[in-house]
Design a protein that fits this description.
The protein is an alpha/beta fold and 270 residues long. The chain has 2 domains: 144 residues, 3-Layer(aba) Sandwich (Rossmann fold); 120 residues, Rossmann fold. Helices cover 45% and strands 18% of the residues. It contains 11 helices and 12 strands. A 6-stranded parallel β-sheet has the order 4-3-1-2-11-12, with helices on both faces. A 4-stranded parallel β-sheet has the order 8-6-9-10, sandwiched between helices. The longest helix is centred in the middle third of the chain and has 18 residues. Bound molecules: D-glutamic acid. D-glutamic acid binds next to helix 3.
Length: 270
């Protein structure tokens, strides 16, 4: 058994890197649907069907616990999967809640009524499907009042990263930050609401400037997972080394992953 980590492609590796640093003994199976990335321009039904199939694969292959290390899949599929019922002994968790708890200064699982928080103006950078789902705003409204969120759908960024065209990805990030600033000139905080974006965190930070606090998910998700596993140690599993699976071309995906994680990663066909 192991913990499963699922993303549409390479973005979940940013979460995997933080999980490995925080929980070095946790066995993981990573699954990237690279053949079908990006998810962020697909319909919610399509994303739900693909996510559900991959999560069920991971459940059937030894992962009792699956992390959707993908905001787009979390936005389009998580609630629907949980409401439809998860098999006994299995869990699927998303990546929104740890981020929103950090933004709203809450401890894990603090379900007290929404209240005023220090941050009032938030810029959300995410995929087109995540932005149109308004899932981030919905989760935020459960916890905070009076927060103004301006969302920027960052078209093209995930495609460029998956294609390995980081020059294009950087240029697109700068232009999306400019577009956001035309709508909200002075955000106090920025949310990198796609797990691919931490690969460009320096570019976001430089474009946003030093006055904007940037919230990036990998370390927040890893901390929250460590907390969850502390309370549910039976979910750890007893697998061995990490395994990396892809629906795409394993050689190509391995090259990109090795470049991003700065160590040799070898993907196999799922
Ligand atoms: N990494 C996914 C996310 O967090 C990516 C999206 C995509 O495939 O468009 O939203």
């Amino acid at each position: 058994m192991a913990a499963g980590i699922f993303d549409s492609g390479l973005g979940g590796l940013t979460v995997l890197g933080a999980i490995e640093a925080r929980l070095p003994d946790l066995p993981v199976i990573y699954l990237g649907d690279n053949a079908n990335a990006p998810y962020g321009v697909r319909s919610p039904d399509d994303i739900h069907a693909r996510t559900k199939a991959h999560v069920e694969y991971l459940w059937a292959n030894g992962c009792d616990l699956v992390i959707l290390a993908c905001n787009t899949a979390s936005a389009a599929a998580l609630r629907r999967m949980q409401e439809a019922g998860v098999p006994k002994g299995k869990r699927v968790l998303g990546v929104f809640v740890p981020l929103i708890e950090a933004l709203t200064e809450r401890q894990w699982g603090d379900n007290s009524p929404p209240r005023e928080v220090a941050i009032k103006h938030v810029a959300l950078f995410a995929t087109p499907t995540t932005v149109s789902s308004r899932a981030f705003q919905r989760e935020l409204a459960f916890r905070a009042i009076g927060v103004d969120v301006e969302a920027q759908a960052c078209g093209g960024v995930v495609d460029a990263i998956e294609d390995g065209d980081m020059i294009l990805a950087e240029a697109l990030v700068r232009s999306h930050v400019e577009a956001l600033r035309r709508k909200m000139p002075d955000p106090q905080a920025a949310i990198l609401g796609c797990t691919h974006y931490p690969l460009l965190e320096d570019v976001f930070r430089a474009a946003l400037g030093p006055k904007v606090s940037v919230f990036s998910q990998p370390a927040l998700v890893a901390d929250s997972l460590a907390d969850y596993i502390g309370r549910h140690p039976q979910m750890i599993g007893d697998g061995e080394a990490a395994r990396f699976l892809t629906t795409g071309d394993p050689a190509r995906v391995s090259d990109r992953a090795t470049q991003f994680l700065k160590r040799s990663i070898s993907f196999e066909t799922v």
